[in-house]
């Protein structure tokens, strides 16, 4: 009786092992048939996976470049949006300032000055916008706000023109504050990098430079004209009405001419967008090519896999049938 028990246990273990082996084969074949990829790559490739590893590295690198291009594209869109906002403020302020003439009242001059001041504030905010946690218009300095806050700059400008009484003197003082190297704007206005521009990798051997900063002349000139229009309404300066009117009229003309300069900055960003788009198309083509080459290496023959699957399925069904019959065998059943 003990021998019979050992025999039964051994038979049970053999049956269980065979059942597990068939199920494993079945699962592997199902996976290969659904994924189209060989499960045992080492055996399939004859032990040499050098080519496959190389393709995987290329695909990983291309994926990283594709992700970088997506982020850069979003970054450039935000820069274009910021510049469009500045241009909108420029146009609004220009229209308001150009409406001022010799017959304008003090109230009208004050209202136009408010429009210019609001435009100045909004332009500074646009330059200080961030993409995630990165500054956009500060060159390689991605941490600092490119510009000091508008209140700080306007206070410095008020000090620069304090005591001046003629439109020409005020105009020259504001120009000097913005344009002289090491002057007010470079000392107290612009806070970003003054040497380089933001550059982003776009491919294995390609880098895209975003050549726009908040200290570009087009931005300085726009801020300069908005500041002149705003200063004309500053009661603390105690300016004559004719001086205020003259300042605002010239500021309106200056803003009108700034449209082309701002378009130039937008075109520069547009060129970077074009480079990113071209690189993205190229990366997509390369990814498709490498993916096809990889699939050819690891692909499982669907017809062969289906045939093997059918064979293993038949073996498993036969195994279950025999197991069921063996389980019913006993001396009692035989003697009946």
UniProtKB/TrEMBL annotation:
Domain Flagellin C-terminal: 262-335
Pfam families reported for this sequence: Flagellin_C
Species of the source: Octadecabacter temperatus
UniProt keyword list: Cell projection, Cilium, Flagellum
Record's protein name: Flagellar hook-associated protein FlgL
